[in-house]
Structures are given as C-alpha cells and as structure tokens.
Amino acid sequence: MPQALKILLVDDSRVARLTLKHLIKECGQEVEIQEAANADEALDLVKEHTFDKALIDYNMPGRDGIELASEIQKIQPDLALVLVTANVQDAIQERAAQQGMKFLGKPVTQEQLNQLINS
C-alpha cells in the first residue's frame, strides 16, 4: 500500500484552505493534510511532522510566504515548497524561484493541482 502524501497548507484564509483541501483530495492520491492559519502555526507543525509538500500563501500577517519558506527550509530542507497567491507580480515570482519554490496563481485549477500533487 503506497504511503499517503503528507501536505501542509498555510493560508490565513480559512475558505482558501478549505478550497485547496477539497481540490487536493480530488487529485486521486491518498493524502494527509495539515493546516496552518499563519507562519507561527506552520513552523510549529514543520517542527513536529515531516511533510512531502507545502502550499503556502504569499500574503499573510506577520511575514510573507517566501519569508516563511526560508524558515521552513532550515528545518526541512527537502520539503517541496509551493507559493500559492493571487499576487502574480514578476518580482514575487522571481523571489519564489530564488527560494526554490514552485508558483501557483490563484485561483488554482484542478489541473494545476493534479500536476503538482502527482509529480
């Protein structure tokens, strides 16, 4: 039996987390999803659990998703990080790429998530 893919969702919007969670579950893979509403919650989860992928919102209170990704990489350097945001400015995409993050613009489609989850 294949092991479930462990995914961390980080977004201050509960609705955005619910939407992503639903789309991820439709990808056809067994998944275990943990949710965090802010960077501090995400860091606590990363310290306690090992994840395969993390989908992180850019605009959050306290620090942005790219700053959070940098902190996460210090704890779990092999974790695949994805920035998920409606803010599709080139500068943000470049910062995400420099941090080694993939980039998904909101609204995220089922097809985009299928490719991400199944890769």
- Percentage of residues in helical conformation: 40-55%
How much of the sequence is in beta strands? Answer: 15-25%
CATH architecture descriptor text: 3-Layer(aba) Sandwich
Mean pLDDT: 94
Terminal-residue CA separation: 18 Å
| Major sheet: arrangement of strands | 2-1-3-4-5
The CATH superfamily is known as Response regulator
Low-confidence stretches: none
Task: Based on Cα principal axes, name the global outline.
Answer: globular
Protein name: Response regulator receiver domain-containing protein
Keywords: Phosphoprotein, Two-component regulatory system
InterPro entries: Bact_response_regulator, CheY-like_superfamily, Sig_transdc_resp-reg_receiver
Compact overview of the structure:
This protein is an alpha/beta fold and 119 residues long. Helix content is 42%, strand content 23%.
